[in-house]
Specification:
Glutaredoxin; Glutathione S-transferase Yfyf (Class Pi), Chain A, domain 2; 4 strands; binds glutathione; 4-stranded mixed beta sheet; alpha+beta
Length: 213
């Protein structure tokens, strides 16, 4: 089994890195320095024609897109307990939160970060940042916690909380006490701590420390 992870420590790759640390399986990290355009070489464009990190190669198969990689890894390594398999009543909600993270939460956060003018929320697939945060808050409340789907921590928690940790670091997360309490609980996961430590070690020494780019 071989897992090759194309990564840069100040990128969305941090979410996949955390996921890999959760799995407890060996993987090789290939750092691509975005400042040197190492993600735009013909070799890497053959892996990800978008010229973006992260990307993953598993036994020769290439997977890109953070949400797809997390979903894929959770299913290929079920022993980590981060997937909800077909047939489980929580499968539908699990997929909903994975897609919601990528399709609604991320664009709403990026709009806020870039101070883009708000569009008509009925025409935008993701509505508004306030609406997506409201939906997450309600789910955390209705699930009874401590996670999105109740007792179990899944790849959907990992993906969504990773995005919201980044938003917190970028100071664009509006006040949301239930979400903040969830992020504090998530912070205690050993795999997240080990991922943070390894990313800090891989960080170029001349760069200010920040998560994401
Ligand atoms: N939708 C992609 C986004 C990946 C992405 O935008 N990565 C950024 C770093 S956070 C990147 O590689 N930017 C460099 C570039 O586009 O030139 C995913 O989920 O993987």
């Amino acid at each position: 089994m071989s897992l090759k992870f194309y990564h840069w420590p100040m990128s969305r790759g941090v979410t996949v890195h955390w996921m890999l640390e959760e799995l407890g399986v060996p993987y090789e990290t290939v750092l691509l320095d975005l400042r040197k355009q190492e993600h735009k070489t013909p070799e890497f464009l053959a892996i990800n024609p978008m010229g973006k990190v992260p990307a993953l190669e598993h036994d020769g198969a290439v997977i890109t897109e953070v949400a797809a990689i997390c979903c894929y890894l959770a299913e290929v390594f079920p022993q980590a307990g981060l997937a909800v398999p077909p047939g489980d009543p929580a499968r539908g909600p699990y997929l909903k939160w994975l897609f919601f993270a990528a399709g609604c939460v991320e664009p709403a956060l990026v709009d806020r970060l870039l101070a883009r003018p708000e569009g008509p929320s009925g025409a935008l697939g993701y509505g508004s940042l306030e609406a997506v945060l409201g939906a997450i808050t309600r789910q955390l409340h209705d699930s009874g916690g401590p996670n999105l789907l109740g007792d179990r921590f899944t790849a959907a928690d990992l993906l969504l909380s990773s995005l919201l940790r980044w938003a917190t670091a970028m100071k664009i997360l509006p006040e949301a006490p239930e979400i903040e309490a969830w992020l504090t609980r998530v912070e205690a996961r050993p795999a997240l701590q080990s991922s943070i430590r390894k990313n800090l070690e891989a960080m170029p020494q001349d760069e200010p420390v920040s998560e994401g780019s």
